[in-house]
Specification:
The chain has about 500 residues and is of the alpha+beta class. Helices cover about 35% and strands about 20% of the residues. The longest helix has 20 residues, at about 210-230.
Length: about 500
């Protein structure tokens, strides 16, 4: 959850429409057409909003390295004649994600970079995203469904997952899902495969190992599977590997397209040296998820997700998801009246011209915090769902709230979470230590098991180590080999 420096944050949608660069019936440029002035302008307008959604652009040597690799692969596309035609950003986000927008703007999160194991894989992911730009996939999706937006397109995906294709889903999805960092424009399978193809072509032109597209997809598939297992879900968090559909099935396709040619560059040791020390997981400025607990050392608060639910931290909200419903914790402008605040959140959920309002409102106190909660039961197609807004006053000008959607009669699943919200002490805040990547050289006597025990996790240490380093279940390590660990950044 974003650092908002104790200021209230509006829980609203960013408008990033593609309509500004298209007119009705206008021809869409081909994949070999350089970036047009209209595309450059549209990308420049959307860029600041995307940075804000994904934690901002990082700076320093690691960001410079990612930028260099990204520009080197992007120029292979023919979209621009100079590296300066492209803007490549390393995002301060704990979510595995990468994307690009028209105008030569390319993004990857530090979390996704952490999963990679060589420079060719970094180039592959960025090349894949450049492929979407070159093939004008976003414009084609926009033309097919003019109501979509660069970020808003992702809202339709998630509203389908959470609410089904219902009127309620259309009404509530935008307000409920904003700020989760799960918002991504979904492309068709055909478009994803085309972006893979173009990325592989760019890899070859740049002198990289063309098989890197397949190997990074394999790592993404393995991470997806591990995340799903650790969270107890049948499907993993909808991040890059799932909003870019089915990475597991694309692995063999990408490897086959890459061919058997060898000799391409991977620059493994260089890559690992350059990303050594990269922050891993949550940034304390955005709060940290530790198991089922969320703690924010700057906002001085903590709460626990219900049993069986998992959390995803975003710049403006913490998402809580599970089979029994969905929730978010966030904030909005607060004028000192909790009942008014709760009513305002219902109105915001309903969207423009909304008549959505709580059917009941109750006052209470939770761990010394004044609290108010409102509930409403609404139709969701042929079924009904319960909506709950549970708000807490932390100061006369600062409040936080949960938004919950659950099947009718099942909102009580979230009661333990509502009751867990509390202030933390300065001692608790000072004890919050983030994680980072540490690249080490395997010494004589080191094994996968001994190295995994150094991972800063209480569970699944060896599984996490193997996925992080693209090691299969039977793979071993050898002296002199560089590997990644996740350790505490003390």
């Amino acid at each position: 959850m974003a650092r908002f420096s104790r200021k209230a944050l509006m829980f609203g949608a960013a408008s990033l429409t593609l309509a500004g660069c298209m007119t009705a019936g206008a021809a869409i440029p081909t994949a070999s057409t350089p970036i047009t002035p209209a595309e450059a302008q549209q990308g420049a307008q959307a860029h600041p909003q995307l940075l804000a959604e994904f934690g901002g652009a990082m700076s320093g040597s690691q960001a410079t390295y990612v930028e260099q690799v990204g520009k080197n692969i992007a120029v292979q596309s023919g979209l621009g004649n100079a590296r300066e035609s492209f803007t490549v950003s390393l995002l301060n986000s704990p979510v595995n994600n990468a994307f690009a927008i028209p105008g030569g703007y390319i993004y990857t999160t530090r979390q996704l970079v952490s999963l990679m194991n060589n420079e060719a894989e970094l180039a592959a992911v960025l090349g894949h995203e450049v492929g979407h730009v070159a093939a004008r996939h976003s414009q084609r999706r926009q033309k097919a469904a003019t109501k979509n937006t660069i970020i808003g397109g992702g809202l339709a995906i998630l509203s389908g997952l959470l609410l089904g294709d219902s009127g309620l889903g259309q009404t509530l999805s935008r307000g409920f899902l904003q700020g989760s960092q799960l918002l991504t424009l979904k492309f068709s399978r055909k478009q994803e495969l085309q972006a893979d193809d173009l990325g592989i072509q760019y890899l070859g032109k740049a002198g990289y190992d063309r098989r890197a597209m397949g190997t990074v997809l394999a790592s993404l598939a393995a991470q997806n599977s591990l995340d799903a297992r650790l969270s107890g879900q049948n499907a993993s968090v909808p991040e890059w590997a799932s909003t870019h559909p089915d990475p597991a099935s694309r692995v063999q396709s990408a490897l086959a397209k890459a061919g058997t040619a060898t000799g391409g560059l991977t620059n493994r040791d260089t890559f690992l040296t350059r990303i050594d020390g990269l922050r891993y997981g949550d940034d304390p400025a955005q709060g940290l998820i530790e198991g089922s607990n969320f703690i924010h050392p700057e906002l001085m608060l903590t709460f626990a997700a219900p049993q069986g639910f998992y959390m995803v931290n975003g710049t403006k909200a913490v998402s809580i998801q599970g089979q029994g419903g969905q929730a978010q914790m966030t904030s909005a402008a607060y004028g000192g009246n909790l009942e008014t605040y709760v009513r305002q959140q219902f109105t915001a959920l309903g969207g423009q011209n909304s008549t959505l309002a709580p059917q009941t409102i109750e006052r209470t106190t939770v761990n010394g915090l004044p609290a108010v909660y409102g509930t409403a039961r609404v139709n969701n197609g042929n079924t009904q769902v319960d909506l709950v807004v549970f708000a807490y006053e932390f100061a006369r000008d600062r409040a936080y709230h949960f938004i919950v959607m659950a099947p009718a009669g099942r909102a009580a699943t979230f009661n333990p979470m509502f009751q867990s919200m509390r202030r933390i002490t300065q001692t608790e805040a000072n004890a919050v230590v983030p994680r980072k990547l540490q690249v080490v050289t395997v010494a004589r006597g080191d094994t996968v098991a001994s190295l995994a025990r150094r991972m800063a996790y209480d569970t699944a240490q060896e599984d996490r180590f193997r996925v992080l380093n693209a090691l299969g279940s039977g793979d071993t390590v050898t002296p002199g080999q560089k590997v990644k660990l996740v350790v505490r950044a003390r």
